[in-house]
Each structure stands twice: as structure tokens, then as C-alpha cells.
Amino acid sequence: MENLLATDNFSLTVRRKPGIYSIIAPMKYTFGQRAVRLSILLLALGWIAGISALPVTGLYTERVAVANESDSERNRAFQEALEAVILKVTGTQNWSSNPAVNDAIRNAQRYVEAISYSSETVAIEPGELEVAATEEAEDSAAQEEVSTSDADSTPPAAPVAPQPTTREQRFISVEFAPSLINQLLTSAGIPVWDSNRPSVLVWMVMQNSAGEREMLTGESNPEIIALMREFAQRRGLPIIFPVLDFADRRNLNENQVWNLEQDAIRAASERYGADSILSARLHFTAGGELVGLWQFIFQDQVQVFDGFDTDLQNYLHGPLDRITTELASYFAISPETMTAQQASLRIDGVGDLRAYSALVNYVQGLGLVESVTTVALDGSRLDLRLNLRGNPQQLSELIALDRDLLPVNSSTDETGDFLHYRWTR
Predict the structure, then answer these.
(1) Fewer CB under 10 Å: which end of the chain, C or N?
(2) 143 vs 155: CA distance, rounded Å
(3) 254, 214 in Cβ contact below 8 A?
(4) Averaged over 34-61, what is the pLDDT?
(5) How far is CA 149 from CA 21, 141, 145, 154, in A?
(6) Alpha carbon 201 to its chain's center
(7) Cα torsion angle, 71, 76, 77, 79, sign
(8) Helix H or strand E segment including 420
(9) Which of 318, 278, 274, 309 is nearest to 291 (CA)?
């Protein structure tokens, strides 16, 4: 591979196709934070209705910190990036020990489609400052040992320079070929989770050792929000935080969330149109323990489970891992069910050419759909025939994550499954 040119303000990206690399535009890896912030902004502007499922981008891309641009460091980053991508694409950690996955990670460069380097100013961690201070002290001691014993000839000690708080960090963004990753997972019998994923609305109330309670907000609890966003980005999970405006606080108070009052939580969540609801109460004890209770509402099923830890990240990531694994197991497409089948869609409300184009693009983008054929167009009604990598039931569940197609009715005729919807976009 040729060396890549990169500066602080410019990065050169390389794309490979059958052993050939070509230059493409620089990539950014800011989906997780931007997506969540955009969701919150849209909510604040009144775009609350119809959030439902959120398309997750960046599933096949990962950014990794590197020490330099050497071949060995690049190959190490490829392996780390592929491991992270497989976690996002499957949605679960269950496959980390799979032999086929481990072999692919060892040969991660086979799956790379594009790379780019970039630099970023990052904060120096406390541990790094301690190492630097130790090295500086050792250097100072060594200089004292070789210095002359004549006190008069010893120059006065130079003032200690302040320790820097930031440094430049080099990153590599690695884009893997989706077709190769999906082929790898399918061959290994591992389900693949489509990018159209169910949204999770999070309500949380904290209680301190004095018994005072408050709703989770980004202003008062930035660490909790940051840890949950970090998990969501790492696992490709669309999470939504309520805006907690007047309407939210009128519909739901701290005590109702603390008591996990299901009816009140459901009613307050309706304006967000989320596919699932995660509610939690968190008590910070005087002894430093984190004790709480979680409630997960999905598909009219309610699960309640407790939480206990002394580490905030572990306390938050444990329940998030549990619900993400459950959602992935429900929606991920298993190779055993990927027998080729067909389904017919009848869609009303297709009023013009723009609506037709948007609808066909939407249907083609569904993870189960291999191909789309227009069968008939009668006024504002469109009939489509779909070739699927799965069955019509899985297709209807995938469509149900959105509100672009609302069901009118469903029936079965002699030629196969027939699904009837209204286009609402």
C-alpha cells in the first residue's frame, strides 16, 4: 500500500477494489453524537410525531486511534475496527468467539474498502500526565547525579514548565465492504441486523442519598447521557431522550418514573412514537453504590429487572446490553430464514411521480428486499412484487418500525402473501 498524505486540515482517503486503491473524499465519523443531537433538536422544534424507527448509518465504518501510519499499526487498527463493525452489524457480543469471525478479524484487510487518516486535538488523560511527570522526575534526578559537587558552579534550577492538557491524536477511519461483511456473517450462520432499527426512548430519575429526586437531563447529568450515547454509538442503537418540556413534565413527574408507573409512562411516551421504552430509577447511596430498577416495554411486553453496581458505566451498559441483544435477536435476519420468497405489496396514496420514486427507493432500501418489480399502477394505487431474503412476516415487522407505510389490511390469496398499505410520506 502506498503511503498516505495527511495534514492537520486535510486527509487523503483511499478506496480499494480488487487490489486497486483510488482517492475518494475524506470521511467524517461523527454519526453517533450528531444523530442524537439532531433527534433532540427536531423534538425541540416540534418534530416529535412519527420518530419511530431510525435508520442507522456508519454500521460498516469505524474510527480507531493510531500511533503512526506504519503497516503494522494500520493492520492492528484494521483488526480493531472489524471487531467493532461486527458488533454493530450483529448488535450483540454473542459472536465474538465464533471461529469464522476470529479468522476474519485476523485477516481484516481482506474486507477493507476505504481508509482515511485525520488528526484531532484530544484531552490528555490523568494517567498520561502521571507518566510524563514520572519521566520528567527521572530525567531531573539523572541530571543531578552527573552534576558537579561544587555548589557555586551549579546554575539555578529552571522553572518547571506547566504540563500540557491536550495533544494531537492521529486516527484512521476504516470503511468495510458491506457485501463482504454480510457474506462472512451469513456463511457463519450469524444473523445480520438491518440498518432500519427500532428506537428506544429513555426515561430516568435519579435519587441522591438525601432522598431528592430529579429527571435525567443533559444539563444536570452529562456523564450519564454521554455514557449512554457512547454505548448506543458502539452498538448501533437509536436512543432518544425526552426533551422534558412543559408537556413532558405535565404528563409525567419524577415519582411516576421512580415507581415505574407503566400506564403513565406509556401515555407520556406517545408523542415520541418510539418503538420501545426504557424507564429507570437510580439511587446513589451514601456508601457509593448504585442501586436501581429498570423497566423495558417492547411489543406490549414488559420486563422489570434490577440493577446494582459501584461503577456508573457498568451500571448503565448492563441493561443497555440486555435490551440491545433482545432487539437484535428479534429483528436480525437469520440465515436459516433467508430462503428466497416473494411478497406482493398494494400501496395507496401514491399521488405523483415524486411519491412513486420515493416509495420505490424506500422499499428497495429495506434489508429483506432483493428486488422490486412494478406490477400495476392504477391512479394513486401501486402494486409491487418483491423478491425477499426472508418471509413476508419478517417484511411486515420491518415495515412496522416506520410510519411511512401504514397498514390498511392484509390477506392471503392463492398466489402468495398480499400486504396492503397506505403511503404517508
Answers:
(1) N
(2) 12
(3) yes
(4) 55
(5) 63, 14, 9, 8
(6) 14
(7) positive
(8) strand 416-423
(9) 309
Whole-number Cα distances in Å, 168 to 11, 13, 144, 163, 171? 15, 20, 32, 15, 10
Pairwise CA distance, residues 23 & 221, whole Å: 43
pLDDT tens for 374-390 read 888 888 888 988 888 77
* DSSP state, residue 149: S
C-alpha cell at 58: 456508519
**What is the DSSP pairing of strand 416-423 with strand 13-17?**
unpaired
Whole-number Å distance between alpha carbons of 241 and 37: 10
Task: Name the one residue in this structure whose C-alpha cell is 432522598.
Answer: 211
- Rounded to whole angstroms, the Cα distance separating 301 from 262 reads 11
Residue 182: helix, strand or coil by DSSP? helix
Q: In the block, which residue shows the cell 430462503?
A: 339
Q: Which residues on neighbouring strands pair with residue 119, listed in sequence order?
A: 170
Residue whose cell numbers read 416495554: 297
d(CA 20, CA 23) in angstroms, rounded, equals 10
Residue among 199, 200, 193 nearest 90 (CA): 193
Gap between the Cα atoms of 24 and 115, Å rounded = 9
Q: Cα angle at 406 between 402 and 411, to 5 degrees? A: 120
Q: Which triple of cell numbers denotes residue 399?
A: 415495515
In this prediction, residue 128 has a pLDDT band, given cuts at 50, 70 and 90, of low
Cell of 134: 514520572
d(CA 47, CA 336): 39
